[in-house]
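SAMPLE LOG
Freezer: B-3
Tube label: C17
Construct: single chain, 150 aa
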Amino acid sequence: MPVQLKIQDIRVLRIDYSIIQGDSSKADAIAAAAEKAGQSVNIALNFKSEDVKANDQSMLKNTLGATIRADNLPFTLSLDIGGIFLIEGEASPEELDKVRHINCNAILFPYLRELVSEICRRGGMAALYLTPVNFVQLYNDGAFKQEKQD
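STRUCTURE (predicted):
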């Protein structure tokens, strides 16, 4: 039987942001000027995962976070989204590793992406849309190997 992944819980774990004071046109003008000047917005994603055993059930507890900042950007934002996933069926360590890093993060990322754009919009600025992330490619490129060593 293939491994079945069931969502137990998804929630916002942490939001830390600051927005410059002033009207939204100033904030949008600063962001537009930064974009014109070719300054890139620094978006750092971070991943955490741990195995959880409860009542003879195997679960994964994943955290996906993002930190967004740039010199001329009118805000800084750091946030974490967490999810608990129930694992049904027997999985080899390699298969469980793929589920942990690819599937769980792919489920959490749209929530993170929506939260970033909504915070910007509610702050009176144009919404910032994070580009989609290919977690399969990140996994194949070894992006998650450093996490295993920590």
